[in-house]
Amino acid sequence: MEKFSAGRHNMLDRSGSCAIVTLFVDDVCYTANVGDSRAVMSCAGGKYTCSLSYDHKPNEKGEHSRIVQAGGKIYQTQSVTKVMDENRPGVSRDQLLYGPHRVFPGRLSVSRTFGDIEAKRTKYGGNPKVVIATPDIKCFKIEDNYDFIILGCDGIFDKLENTHVV
Question: Of 36, 73, 72, 77, nearest to 57 (Cα)?
Fold first, then answer.
């Protein structure tokens, strides 16, 4: 029997989330990631940066292959907007705008999440093999020239490069 938390008005909770976690055990760091969260490490006083995870986006090569093999699809929304033509004052032209790549089923812009039962449960039209909650886990030994680790989520790294964040 499935159990889900009931929110306001006894409605089924269909929300989901991503996560990035680090765990230190003695001189070893473990990093686990699900979704578009990311861990970035500063080394040698900020001279170098190192990604400790990668974003689970549907257009990433490995995720794309996994999704398609599991029976999912990837699409990208498009819309048209009017913009002023720089070469002809007072004249507008159509410009095609592209949205993020998304996974179907689920219509999510990430390929791994916690929750999001509509993307995962067949009784809601989902496919449990397409959007998954399996984390990528990395571990490494802490060295003296490692400064700090930044954990970020919710598209921060869609706007900022690792080096800018550090």
Answer: 36
